[in-house]
Amino acid sequence: MLQKAFEAAPPSFANQEMREKIERTLQLILREALDAVFTEGVRASVQQGGQQTLQQALRGDFGGALKKVEETPQVMITALIAVLRRHQQTILRLFLALLLLEVGSSLEHTEKAK
Question: With a threshold of 0.70, does the pTM exceed it?
Fold first, then answer.
């Protein structure tokens, strides 16, 4: 997805070094996010929720089972949000750097068009 965004941008939008830095940073954040979702604690919580869901469904408590099913993604999302919060300054800096590069690129094109 990031590659497609860079391909759609003008050639002067970001140099190769900037692209590589952004890609490395985002890969590290993504890896940490995936690690957070698949930690032992999250897996144990999901497994326990699954077992409780089955038990409730077998007892005919489909409302309770449905509630447990709804809680499962919440555990995973909470882990993801924690990672994003830890990296929010980095993500914001990358976004602002890309925004400034785009503004600079737009100004160059405007100057050349005159």
Answer: no
